[in-house]
Structures are given as C-alpha cells and as structure tokens.
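User: Run a structure prediction on this.
Assistant: Running it now.
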Amino acid sequence: MRIRAAVSAGLLVVLGGPASAQTAPDKPPPPPPVAAPPDAALYIIAPRSGSRVTSPVTVQFGLRNMGVTQAGSSAKNAGHHHLLVDVREPVAGGEPLPADKNHLHFGGGQTETRLDLPNGPHTLQLVLGDALHRPFVPSVQSQKIQITVVSAQALRKKRRPIRHRRG
C-alpha cells in the first residue's frame, strides 16, 4: 500500500498533478494602444451642428492627416470610424468601443451613413478606432454636434418665406 501511495505521489509531482492540467494557459496581453499623429483631426462634414433635418439623416465623416481602413487592419496611421449617437459618457481610453444602437461601427472603411432617427434633439460624435476598435492615443474624435430631427412638413413650414400684403 505504501509503495502505491509513493508511486502515485511521485507521478503527481512529475506530471504536474491534475490541478495544473485544468488551468488555462495565460492569454497574451493585448497590444499597447496605437499612437495617432499629433495633427490628426476627425470631424463631421454633414449635417452641421444646430441643423434641423429630416430622417433618414445622411452623416458624412471627415478625417485629416490619417487614413481610413477596415477593422482588423494594422495599417500605419489609419483606422475606422465609430459614430456615437446620443452618448453622454466620455469614451474610455484603451478599451474597445461597445457595439450597440448608440455606438455604431463602420469596420468596412465607410465614410458616410444614413440614420433613421426619431423626431427630436440628438447628438452625434465620431471616434476613430484602431484594428481592435480601441480609440487611438491621443483619442482622435470629432466635436459632438447637436441636430434636431423634424418632420418634412415642419421643415417646409420653416423654409417658407413670410409674405406681407401691401394695402
């Protein structure tokens, strides 16, 4: 009996024991955040802040001193767009941007989109993401703009000139 226990204990030590066979290998750490050129600028071409628009809203993305590429691409000085719709909290540095109805990903390298938005006020902001959907360091993001979505009828009423009758 003692011999069997000694042999079993020796095998556990040599083979590393059942506990080590069950532990998962350590994940390699994610690569460090990607640096952006200091003169990079991201902006919304259209609509302009303060605009009254109808839905669907065409949003055009602008980028200066960097390139646009697909998600997953590690091309130097290039990233892909993320559009934040009605997002109040600031973007967390170093973490991938979430993907939901308020954080829209354009991993195909798109530079514009059409949004169906309900009537009312909305905010829009662009954030450029690296291959892993993380903001660059420093963050390359546009100013947050405000738009108001109105019905087509309300927009026509606003544009109609006021005519005065002469008597």
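The chain has one domain: 41-157.
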